[in-house]
User: Which sequence fits this backbone?
């Protein structure tokens, strides 16, 4: 009987401990290579913390998110991200914010992913065609959004927003990380440094190698 009570108590204690500490914290960097030499180490998953007694209102403040941004670029989009680098008080709070401006008639926030965050988007102006693709099997889920509409993009999934209106569009997005990261698909595939072997991309996308070379030239981020 005593053995049974001990075993039950032990299992309950182990279960409570597993809930408290048996998982890793969500990473806030793309990778972390283990290193034995402390002098070459870096501090990850956040930043060193300011003495709480020295914090001021400006540590939690940003001004000017109401100002329209320039969308004169090939995609016709401008993303103003407020993460821990812009608002120091976001450190360890697991949240960030973005204003997204879209040019009229086709401003596009191109297909991309946030490796460390789910995104919730609210449309303020314009008409946005939005969507994301699920992991295998790849289902495409899309919706046309109007001012006041809200849409969620699950963490890590490829998604986009496209302005269907003849006027500029504006949306705000909340992201569930102080440093969500972004991988824009076209840039990541055709524009990394150094470049991916074009033979690999030609086979993967079933394209002529010359087309791949042209795309790599277009997205070359070293220019």
Assistant:
């Amino acid at each position: 009987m005593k053995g049974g009570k001990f075993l039950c108590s032990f299992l309950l204690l182990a279960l409570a401990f597993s809930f408290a500490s048996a998982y890793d914290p969500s990473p806030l960097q793309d990778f972390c290579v283990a290193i034995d030499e402390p002098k070459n180490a870096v501090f990850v998953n956040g930043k060193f913390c300011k003495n709480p007694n020295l914090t001021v209102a400006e540590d939690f403040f940003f001004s000017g998110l109401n100002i329209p941004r320039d969308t004169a670029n090939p995609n016709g989009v401008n993303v103003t991200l407020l993460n821990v680098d812009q608002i120091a008080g976001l450190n360890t709070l697991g949240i960030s914010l973005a204003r997204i401006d879209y040019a009229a008639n086709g401003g596009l926030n191109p297909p991309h992913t946030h490796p460390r965050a789910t995104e919730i988007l609210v449309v303020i102006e314009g008409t946005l065609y939005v969507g994301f693709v699920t992991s295998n099997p790849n289902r495409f889920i899309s919706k046309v959004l109007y001012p006041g509409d809200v849409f969620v993009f699950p963490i890590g999934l490829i998604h986009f927003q496209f302005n269907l209106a003849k006027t500029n569009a504006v949306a705000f997005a909340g992201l569930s990380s102080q440093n969500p990261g972004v991988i824009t698909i076209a840039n990541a595939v055709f524009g990394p440094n150094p470049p991916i072997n074009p033979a690999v991309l030609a086979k993967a996308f079933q394209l002529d190698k010359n087309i791949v070379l042209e795309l790599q030239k277009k997205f070359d981020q070293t220019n």
